[in-house]
Design goal:
Layout: E1 2-3, E2 7-10, E3 16-22, E4 26-31, E5 37-41, E6 46-48, E7 53-54, E8 61-62, H1 63-74, H2 86-96, H3 107-123, E9 127-128, H4 131-161
Antiparallel strand pairs: 1-9, 2-3, 2-6, 3-4, 4-5, 7-8
Length: 184
């Protein structure tokens, strides 16, 4: 699989971007081609490449797996030119992903995928995830989830202990076990 963490596509803007930081009104991104940083509004339509998949006759296939197939076919080199004719683009895509859904995957989708792959390849951001790295990331995620659930359980236990306290109005000191008679 290809590592696509932090790589996004912004609707209406060419190229791919890397998320650098979050700002108060959106996110700060850096263009992969020109390395310029810009601020993107929170209302902009942003798609993470990790979340995008393509239709196949079976289950949908993530873009990272398709890019890995292109990477293996080209041995790390660039893919077909996106300005090639439709027949050659379709034939190349079919050699990479033979079980794609021919009714729902259009040539424009194929061109966009090849454009993304070539952009990542020329900018040096085309990194192949190794299985060991994936296993350590999954175990790290499991550890984080386990720690979060243990923390929630600890919070629930302390919340159960604290329910015996009663609320008082501000400025009034409540004493335990002493009854006020109202006479001084």
């Amino acid at each position: 699989m290809i590592d696509l963490t932090g790589i996004i596509a912004i609707s209406g803007q060419p190229g791919l971007y890397k998320v650098v930081a979050q700002s108060k009104n959106g996110i700060i991104v850096e263009g992969l081609a020109d390395k310029k940083r810009t601020s993107i509004s929170s209302t902009a339509k942003v798609s993470s490449l990790e979340d995008i998949s393509m239709f196949t006759t079976g289950d949908d296939k993530p873009v990272s797996e398709i890019m890995k197939a292109i990477y293996d076919k080209e041995k790390g080199g660039p893919s077909i030119d996106v300005k090639a004719d439709d027949k050659s683009v379709t034939a190349y895509f079919e050699s990479v992903l033979p079980d794609y859904d021919k009714e729902r995957v259009y040539t424009s989708n194929m061109r966009k995928l090849f454009n993304w792959y070539n952009g990542l390849q020329t900018s040096g951001n085309l990194k192949v995830k190794e299985k060991e790295t994936e296993a350590t990331e999954e175990s790290a995620e499991k550890k984080i989830v386990k720690a979060a659930t243990e923390k929630k359980a600890a919070v629930k236990k302390t919340a159960a202990k604290d329910t015996t306290k009663t609320k008082t109005s501000t400025g009034v000191k409540k004493t335990a076990g002493v009854r006020k008679t109202g006479v001084a």
